[in-house]
Write a structure and sequence with these properties.
Layout lengths: L1 H27 L6 H30 L5 E9 L5 E9 L2 E7 L2 H8 L4 E7 L3 E12 L5 E12 L4 E10 L4 E8 L1
Parallel strand pairs: 1-7
Antiparallel strand pairs: 1-4, 2-3, 2-5, 5-6, 7-8
Helix pairs in contact: 1-2
């Protein structure tokens, strides 16, 4: 059902874009006296088509990822002295769900306070386990691999989890933590 609805939404977007293109072409051939009124009508129609397209996108997101089954996993970083992030791998219930390899720009954004959405999908209600495996360069320029497991209960509401990577100055190494929002 989701695939057929997704197909329907994409067709609606294509039709709206085709209508917009047709209207813009018709407007190009308008007479000079009608040019300003036609331009105003075209601009209003263009705004309306963009609004419908935005509404269709929101509807598609709501149907594909309803709040009752939605789970999102985010990553935040507060490191610098003891760890240089290279990649992250996420497993849910022993199944690989995502893997992300970081670029220098990604790392810079995370160090400036960005929070990255690593994963968004549907998950059934009940108990689940998420495992985050973080790989990078640790103290003394050695490869460093650290994992953390977190058990959580998925209920009828949307669930958001944040993987936090922090410097632990007492142990001179990074510390992983997973928190629920």
């Amino acid at each position: 059902m989701q695939q057929s609805f997704r197909y329907f939404l994409r067709k609606c977007r294509l039709v709206s874009v085709a209508i917009l293109a047709f209207v813009l072409n018709v407007g190009a051939f308008a007479f000079e006296e009608e040019k300003q009124t036609t331009a105003a009508k075209l601009e209003a129609l263009k705004k309306e088509v963009l609004s419908v397209n935005r509404d269709l996108f929101i509807l598609e997101e709501d149907l594909l990822f309803p709040a009752s089954t939605q789970v999102a996993i985010y990553l935040s970083v507060d490191v610098g002295q003891f760890f240089a992030l290279d990649n992250v791998k996420i497993k849910i219930d022993d199944e690989d769900v995502t893997h992300y390899l970081y670029t220098k720009n990604d790392i810079d954004a995370l160090h400036r306070g960005a929070i990255q959405k690593l994963y968004l999908d549907n998950l059934s209600t009940g108990k689940h386990q998420v495992v985050a495996i973080v790989i990078g360069i640790g103290p003394h320029n050695r490869e460093y691999r650290k994992a953390i497991a977190f058990d959580f209960e998925k209920d009828s509401e949307a669930k958001a989890l944040e993987i936090q990577i922090r410097d632990d100055s007492s142990k001179l190494q990074p510390r992983l933590n997973i928190v629920e929002w």
